[in-house]
Each structure stands twice: as C-alpha cells, then as structure tokens.
Specification:
The structure is a homodimer of 705-residue chains.
Chain A: H1 3-8, H2 33-36, H3 43-51, H4 55-64, H5 78-94, H6 112-121, H7 127-147, H8 150-161, E1 167-170, E2 186-190, E3 195-199, E4 207-210, E5 219-228, E6 231-241, E7 253-257, E8 270-274, E9 277-280, E10 290-291, E11 297-298, H9 304-313, H10 317-341, E12 345-348, E13 355-357, H11 362-393, H12 400-431, H13 433-437, H14 443-450, H15 460-478, H16 484-495, H17 508-511, H18 528-550, H19 558-567, H20 569-593, H21 598-618, H22 620-625, H23 631-648, H24 652-657, H25 663-666, H26 674-692, E14 697-698, H27 699-704
Parallel strand pairs in A: 1-5, 2-5
Antiparallel strand pairs in A: 2-3, 3-9, 4-8, 5-6, 7-8, 10-11, 12-13
Helix pairs in contact in A: 3-4, 4-6, 5-7, 6-10, 6-11, 7-8, 10-11, 10-12, 11-12, 11-20, 11-21, 11-23, 12-14, 12-15, 12-20, 15-18, 15-20, 18-20, 18-21, 20-21, 21-23
Protein name (chains A, B): acyl-CoA oxidase
Cofactor (chains A, B): FAD
Region (Disordered) (chains A, B): 1-33
Chain lengths: 705, 705
Amino acid sequence: MSDAAVRQNAHPRKPATNTRTPVGGAPTSPHSAVEAHEARIDVDAVTDLLLGTWRETRREAREMIKDPAFWRIEGQPMPEHRERVLGQLRLLVENNGSRRAFPTEYGGLDDNGANLAGFMELVLADPSLQIKSGVQWGLFGSAIYQLGTKKHHDAWLRDVIELDLPGAFAMTETGHGSDVAAIGTTATYDPETEEFVIHTPFRGAWKDYLGNAALHGRAATVFAQLITNGVNYGVHCFFVPLRDDDGAFLPGVGGEDDGVKGGLNGIDNGRLHFDHVRIPRFNLLNRYGDVASDGTYSSEIPSPGRRFFTMLGALVQGRVSLDGAATTGTALALHIAVTYANQRRQFDSGAGSDEVVLLDYGKHQRRLLPRLAQNYAQFFSNDELLRTFDGVFSGRQDTPAERENLETLAAALKPLSTWNALETIQEAREACGGSGFLAENRLVGLHQDLDVYVTFEGDNNILLQLVGKRLLADFAKQFRGADAAKLASFAARQTVGKVFHGAGLRQFGQSVADLGSTARSVELGLRAEQQHELLAGRVEQMISDIAGRLRPAAKASPAEAAELFNANQAELIEAARAHGELLQWEAFSDGIAGVDDEGTAQVLTWLRDLFGLHLIEKHLAWYLINGRLSSQRAAAVSKYIDRLCLRLRPHAQDLVDAYGFAPEHVRAPIASGAEHERQAEARAYYADLAASGEAPASEKSLKKK
Amino acid sequence: MSDAAVRQNAHPRKPATNTRTPVGGAPTSPHSAVEAHEARIDVDAVTDLLLGTWRETRREAREMIKDPAFWRIEGQPMPEHRERVLGQLRLLVENNGSRRAFPTEYGGLDDNGANLAGFMELVLADPSLQIKSGVQWGLFGSAIYQLGTKKHHDAWLRDVIELDLPGAFAMTETGHGSDVAAIGTTATYDPETEEFVIHTPFRGAWKDYLGNAALHGRAATVFAQLITNGVNYGVHCFFVPLRDDDGAFLPGVGGEDDGVKGGLNGIDNGRLHFDHVRIPRFNLLNRYGDVASDGTYSSEIPSPGRRFFTMLGALVQGRVSLDGAATTGTALALHIAVTYANQRRQFDSGAGSDEVVLLDYGKHQRRLLPRLAQNYAQFFSNDELLRTFDGVFSGRQDTPAERENLETLAAALKPLSTWNALETIQEAREACGGSGFLAENRLVGLHQDLDVYVTFEGDNNILLQLVGKRLLADFAKQFRGADAAKLASFAARQTVGKVFHGAGLRQFGQSVADLGSTARSVELGLRAEQQHELLAGRVEQMISDIAGRLRPAAKASPAEAAELFNANQAELIEAARAHGELLQWEAFSDGIAGVDDEGTAQVLTWLRDLFGLHLIEKHLAWYLINGRLSSQRAAAVSKYIDRLCLRLRPHAQDLVDAYGFAPEHVRAPIASGAEHERQAEARAYYADLAASGEAPASEKSLKKK
C-alpha cells in the first residue's frame, strides 16, 4: 500500500458516507447519525471504553506499530518473512515491548495486565509478530519465569528479554497435543552425574509445531516425564540448550522444519527430538517440583494432578492474549467491511436512478451488524478477563480459587472469540466480494493467520469441555448431601429461570446490577432482564439436564460411565459455549452500565440488545423445545433483530470508527476512501454525459416510444 | 510429499483401522463394518455411483493428474506458481484436456458433459490449474464459441484450444461485479472505419480480477455497452487483442497486476483498461446481436433484457463446474479428516488403558459425519445438474424453458456446495488440530483456494436471490387470475404440507418415486416421507409467506416496493437455500433408489437420513414456530442424529474410501497411514517397556500404596 493510499484513508472521524447524495425512494435508512437526526455515540469516549483498563498501553503499542517496519508484507516468501519477523522482535525489544511481564531486576517492568494489553495489538501489524513474540516472551520466557526459580531467572531472564537467547516452548508432541499429561518425552535423572537425560523414545514423542524451533531457537523449555529413582513424577519443564552460536544443533539434538503453514509463516515452526541429551540438574525448572542431588523428588503440591494443573495454569496468559488478539483482529475485519459497505454501491433499487449502498441492503445489515455487536461484547469480556489475570499474576488476588476462576474464564472465552474471529473475518471477506479476496485488503491474511488460534493453546472443543466439566462439578457441589427437599426446591427454582451460581465465575444477579439501562432498550418484548433470564436459564438447565443424564454413571462400570459421558459430550460443549456467551453478554451490560452520555448509552444499549437477541435467535429451537419461549415470542425475535439492525445502521460507521484504528493499522485500500472516490468519479461522469446531451439513448427507452 | 509417503498410503481398500486392538470398555463403537458384523457398502460400486454419468472421463482425468507435474507445490512463491500452472495448461492440451467442449472441426471432441466432469477433477491436482483452465477454455474460449459465430470460430477457436492464444474473460469491473448490466466500459461503433472503439471512461470501469490478464493473456473477450447510432444496446462481448508477441500491451491497452490473493496464486489475475482502442467490426461476437456496416443494430431477440440474460446464460457452465469442483474438494477434505480420525488417538477414556480413536468421540462424529452425508448429497445433485447441462448444450434438450431451468438449478446448487466446501474444509482442518494447519496436509490450501468460489461466477447471495425471485414468480403464476376459491383451496393444501410445483425444476412427487427405500430407514419417527414433507413444505410455506408480505408492493410506489422487498431480502435468500437443500436431498434419494446391493442400500439410506435430519435440525426453530414439528418430535431430531452417527461410524472409512481417491490425489501425510504407524510404534514401546519390568512406577500408584 502506498503512502498516498494511507493518507487517503478518510477514517476515523469523517465518514465518507456523510457526503452521499440522498436518493429519494431508494430503500435506504439514513447512513449516519447526523442524517438520522439522532443522538450519536461519542466516538472517542467509546474508543476509551473498548480499549479498556490498559488503554494507555494499547495506545502506545498502536503508536509503535505505525512504523511500516512492523507491517506484514503480503505474499512475502516464507524465508524472508521469517527473517523480517525476527527483526521485528528486535525492534520490539528496543521499544520496551518485551519487558512488561518481567521483574524489574532483569530489566522488566513488572506489569502483567499492560503486557498482554500491548501484546494483543501487535496482531494489527502482523499476527506472525504477535505469535512469535508470544513464543519468545509469553511461553519460553514465561516458562522460565513462572516455572523456574531465582537461580533460573538470574541465569536466563535478562537474555530472554533482550532476545539474546531466543527460545522454543517444547510442550506439544506429534502424538500428543491437547493431552499434555500423556506426552512421551522422558527426563530421567542420573544421580551419578547429577544430570537429567532428555530422550525421545519414539517418533510420536517428537516435539512439534514449535515456534522458534526450525531456525532461531538457541534453547527450549522442554516438557517431559520426570523419572527419578524408578518413579515417574509426571510432566515437568526443563531448560534444554538446542543450538550452538553458529545455529547448529548440539549433540543429540535434532529436528525438522514444519514447512509452510496455513498462515503465520513469519514464524519458524519446527520439530525437535532428543537422543539421550544430558542437562545439569540445575536446568529443571523447579518451582513446583524438585529433585535433590541424590534423586529424591519433592514438591510442595502433594497431589500429582493438582501439581500438573498448577504448572499448566501458570501459563494461562497465552489464552488470555489470544482472546484479546482475536477480538482486535475481528474488529479490524469489521472496520474494513463496514467502511466498504458504506461506500460501495451495487444494483439500483428499481426505485431511483442511483445504485444502492451495500449496507442499505437488509441482508448485508444482517451479515455484519450482529457480528459487530458480538465483537463489542468480546472487547468488554476480554477486559474483564485481563483484569482477572492481572489480579492473579500481580499477586494482589492470587488465591487457588481465583487462579481456577481465571483458567475457567480463559477457557470459556478464548474458544468463542477465536471462532468468532474466523467466522466474522470470512463473512467480512465475502461481503467485500472479489476485492475482499485480494491480499492487499487484509481479510484473507487475517483469516489465514488466525486460523490456528482455534486449535492452539488448547483446542477450542477441549477447552469448552473443561469448562463444561467445571460447571458440572459446581452444580454437583450444590447438592452434595442434599436432601429431597432441597432438590425439590431446586427443581422449582429451575422452572422460574433462576440461575445456579455456578462455576464460581460471577455471582450473576449481583455484578450485573443495572443490566444496562433497561429504559433505553428498544421497545421490545425482550428487554435486558428477559435476555439475561433466557441466556442464564439456558446454561443452568443444560447443565442440570446433562447432570441428570450422567447420574447413572456414578454406579456404572468405568466403561459404561465413559460411554454415557461420550453420549453427552457434544451437548456439554454446547452448554459451556452458552456459559461463555452469557459471560460476554454480562460483560457488555456491565461495560455500558456506567456510560453517562445519552447518545452513547442509547446506541450501545441497542447494540447489546442486538447481541442478546442474536444469541437467542441462534438457540431458538432450544428455547422453544424447552418451553422458555412461545412460538409467538420466538417468531418475534427475528423481527426484533431486523428492527435493531435498521436502528443501528446509521451508527455503523461511528461504531467501527470507535475501534480507534489509524490508517496505518487498517492499510486496506478498500477501506481507504478509494472506493468512495471511484463511485464519485463514475457518477460525475454519467452526470456530465447527461448534461452534455451526448449520452446515448437506451434501447429500452426507444422501445417504449 | 515423498514418494515413499505416497506409497505408504493405505487407502483406499485397506483401512488401517481394521488392525486396531479392540479395547474393552472404551467408549467405542466398531471401527469398521467388519468389526460391526454388518453388511457393508460395496465400495467400488459406490465409487461408480458418486462419479456419476461421466465416470469414465473422471477416471481418465484422475489418472492423468497422478503425474506430479500437475500437483500444487505448497508455499511456492507466486511468480513460479504462475509459470508452473501455465505449463500445466500446456500439459492439459497434450492430454486432450482442452478439447472436450469444442466442435470437432477445430480439434475438439464435442462432449459438454464429459468436459465439465473431467475439468472438475483438476481441483485435486491444484485448484489454480482448475480455475486457470476454466478461464482459458470455459470462459474466454466459451465466450468465443457460445457468443460468436462461425467466422469467429474459424479465426480463433483452434488457437484457443491449443493454447496458442491465451486469453482473459473481461466481464467484471472494479465498480461492477454482480450487476453486469451496469458495467461502464463502452464499445462505440464508428461507421466510417467500421470499427468499434473500446473505452474505459473512469477508474471504476477498469476490468478487474481477470485471470490471464496480468501476464499471459494475448487477447480478451471484453464485455462492454454496445453503442451505435447514438443508442446503447446494452452489454455485448468483443474480442480485443491485448498484447503483442513479446507480451507488451498493444497501443491504448493498459493494466495492473492484482497481486497476491487469498489463494489461487497460480493464476495471474489482473486489471485492464482501454483508451479508445479500435477493433474491427468483425470482432463483435455477434451470435445474439449484430451491427451492420452502416451501424444498424439487429438481433433475433427483441427484448433487451432477455437478450442480456441469454448471453449470460450461455456461460452457465462456470457455475456448473464450480458446483462439481467444490464437491470434489470437500470430499478430499473429508477423506483426509476421517482417515486421520480413524487412526489418531487422544486421551484415554478412563475406562481402559488405551487412548481413544478420535472418531469414537461423540463430538467428533457430530463434526464430521453430517458433513459427509451432505457431501454425498452434493455428488448426486451435481450429477443431475451436469446431465441437465449436457442436455441443453448438446442440443438434445435445448429449449428456452430448459435453459432457464438449468440456470436456476446452477444458481441454487453452486452457492450451497461452495459454502459447504469452506465450512467442511475448515471443520476438517480443525478436526486435525495442529497437523491440519500444516500446508503439507492440504486442508488449509484447499480452503484458501476455494474461498473465492463463494463470490465469483455469481456471488452466492445474489445467486440465491435470483433463485428466490424465480420461486416467487412461479408461485405467482399459479394464481394468475385465480379466484377466491382457488386461493382458499391453496391455503388448505398448504396446511397439509403439500408442495406447489415451483421453479419448474422437478415435479417433486414424480421423480422421487421411491424416496429411497423407506423400509431401510432407521426406525425413526422421521422416515423419508416425513423428511421430504418437512423439507418441501418449508420451501413452499416460506415462499408463500414472502409472497403474501410482498403483495402490497403491487400497489405501492417504487420506493415503497423496494423497501418492502429489502425487508424480505434475507428471508427470500433463506427460502432459496431451503429450495437448494431440498433438491440435494431429492437427488440423493433418487441416486440410491436404484441400488440393489443390500449393504450399500442400507448404509446409504442411513446416510441420506442423516442428511435429511441434519437439515431439519438446522432449521428446527422454523419447524417449531410454524407448527410443523411438536416440541417432542423436535427434541427427538438431535437424538436421531446421534443414533445415526453411531450407526454410520463403522462405515465412515468405507464411505470416504468410496470417493475413489488414489494416494496421488490425497498426498496428505496425515492420511497416508503415517499416523497409524506412529501410534503402533508408541504402543509397542510402552508394551515392551512394561514387559521389560523396567518401566518407572507412576507417582499416583505409589501414593495409593
């Protein structure tokens, strides 16, 4: 994209649509709030709201990546792209982008929430940059910091931060991704030499898909089964040097390049294997489990299961940041598609001489506006997740319960936002037609890069299953030792749609105090309270139904129990998804509860309503089957949505401008105002031609004569 | 992929899953029909069934593309990829792949159905090859053949077929894609020199996204507004030379490279513009409209609208072939994902010592098997489309009504199959986890290349809208001049779920004579008749409802009418989609009606039922709201689907083997048997370790002591 094109970008703050010539009779609602003579949102204030708690850090990051050196070059061949992204990591170091998560004594800034907030924005420059820096500092560095102890920090953290020690995070194996506990790599302690022997016993135990493994990693944090004195103490993490100063593998270490991927080709993913590689005992990252020189194992967490999950939980930040990056990437796609849809014209309406702007089509509104509402919800829920994360990792609220909540929240939100990203980016690309398929317009690249977000750092379905199990466990807790009266009382409550306060995540009725200014809701039959009741009631009943169906498992054989669980797996995942949707809806409602500006509050309430109704429409069959909506009310949901789309249509440009992207972040020529110029030129041409009296007559008009 | 890997490919005919060690108690159903002790499908016979009417041509094409010269090289930079695909086109010529659609007098083979059938298979080699050859012979060559007359055929067809004259098809402009009638390029006749002047009056009128335009095209078939004697006779097609023998643009011609795209980067898409470029009168492709030397226009089709649609209709083959290619591409993705899911293991079930094969998970079955059923339906409906196409283009059944039916059928099926392709390929990629993201496993490349299929050759939503309008028109025809009694009688019929015989496509009750062996249906409450009634009744009622809501438009102002239509646009598109789904279901039912082999008929009937119920589940809310299913029956639909998935699970490998792909077509290492070998190696390792007595004890087992 040329500099000129960047300068031509008319947004934010001056929607080109304001300059449109109104066409009498075209099936158009107003294109802007000004035309609609309505209160409009305070765009800058909404930007603040969306950027959330760490808005200043985000703005810093966005300012930094205005430098074209950070931008993805479309179509760049893989080898050059990899080198470019490595260079961008060095630039990040220079700009202090690598320091925020780490302690000040090693050159860090000790600010966890800000770290992730800034990191998420890198997706706007190049998702490869976001993920490669995530590998270096969020995974490799974080493993050393979170799973290691002071001696390890002293030894390596400064070099990690400065990128003098690039590293890989070697957890996943070819044979085991989601089931980390079952990995095959072994780390066997040899008391004679006080060394661990890192070994790959078979092909499936090769470490795989690791960023920094193919080329740049000098070391890796390797997860392996810790075996000492003939006992396997489960998965632990070890610091293992990989390459010498010339980049050649050290003795016993080998590997392969993963080659071209569906996206993120700025990252050198690869495979690693180890043939009895010896590392000093020192290199066991021993915060949660240690081995004495004689081989005696010790841990302050006696339960092997809890120890394992504590170690994994220390690395939750990957999921938190993916939730945010997916949300930001989705916003970029919506900004591009809505801006284009506000300028692009196609087909006359049959009612006037002019062609219709895409966003005036009922179908086009339906394609984009509910997704815009969803994306707004994600901004609010991600900020909540980020605050929870910061509370735990700053130590301010670091309790086991809060850690567990954080992990569940991340496991519920990351799947939803990453799937939404793919669906929304795809819809945006299709809504831009052929121009959406050109790499220069960014949408295809975003889809390709974000594709893997739905299966890495925890496969989305597996994460939701974890959330579902947590919901089931919380549900069961309520009835531990319950007598018949209590169960009956619960059954009664169920029918009125109250929510069991499950999953320890949020005391629903409490924190959603206001439910987002009911008074401002469109005059629907489904105001905020009803939306909440429907969304929350669904989670409750699904979990309660599944729990009921699983009850026989308690007295069944393990095989029968497994079969019973398997028969309910798909629905449990659906219940977890419903839970995540509820959390997003609540976060959205909380987020707008404090808004004072009347226009902003009004429009955001409509948008929240659109999100709520969109969710209810998606699950309409469930509400009908379960008697929670009558056929009549259910039939009205889609009509409400159509009305909300019409209401929001004039505010669409304001709402995507409120993402606060500068031209250097957008970079897509179709969202630069160029389309508007082309339309204007074409219309001027036809107007001049008509005025000249030299326009050819149309055959049709002749035939009429 | 190495030759060795290709050789290792165990499929089709020897599912690796047959070698599995059964695990007592794991939540597994049998992995193969052999294990299930059930009748199984006759795989070869089903391959014949799927390959359809032109199965021999398809087999020839598949044999040809076993040559690695035709294969896509993952990650190949764009310039090399473009050259490679051009070379593949030359190979196609050598293999007679370019001749089938053209008359024998120019070296053709005069076999339209076979031409498209063979062409569709190229997607297995490289979708860029499929589309670039489609540009050359299906669009550029076809425009000359279908829109030109003998003098044009004599002049150019032989060179087109031999690729001595590579060309572009210059219809779409930057400013107008779907609305072809509104393109800006002009062709103004100059009687003094007997030339047309081809001109691009403004930037939006540049031709855009044209394959062969950036590099290889020597000429183009350019669509432009034909203006003569001061009258615009609408869009016609002209043969315009572009480049000289050295590849330089001729005077007045200019252009740009479209650059990198989301996929299909083996094709040199580009833009063209014309500055008063003069071409001889000869170059007007004058089959449907001609200009005499004095500038007098003549046409055998007096209506400008009908003439325009006749010209566009002559090019329908693009949509027909995309429907088939999308179906074949989807099949490849399912073959890869199902084969992998039958070998890959992850997590133990808690019930046995072994890990569970992915396809044994309830959720995994739900993700893949309904899509397999859908893909089967598409094979059958595509063959029907192909037969209709061949009937028209061979001249055997070339009536205006049949042409219209063909166009509507293509417009209904192409959107469904191309969207299904993207969704299924994406689900397949996610179902393969990280390995699905590696380019070598093909899924990401397929998604990238097929992405644009949903918006080119007619944007999917626009095509469905056309179908919807056709359904509305047919509906209206039934009541033209109807009196109150007739309307009342229709209303009565509606409630019993009978179908109006709309869209002239298929006399539903007639051609679906058997409804696919009801006796073989699973004992459901929703047998074939009910499925058909529900699917057909939905189309009927949606159209009838929309027609009712649009009725006031007849008496409204154009603006009000446009607004009313716009308010119903999204639902009209939904109705058209429902119509397409019905056609697919009927084609599937027809396709299996003649199957004699008991096992094949049984399994395919289950699969057809799964397809039908999957559609009904998707639209369950509609059935409930409209009183067509009770809550109780609706709740049962999902359970039926779960049961069908369990029934079909042992047949899944047979069903994807029946696609008939050879290792040279699949090429994905994860579907080669490599995963099975890795699993076997790992299990052997642990078995040997246990047998050796040297296996470390697990910490957990120690704690129990």
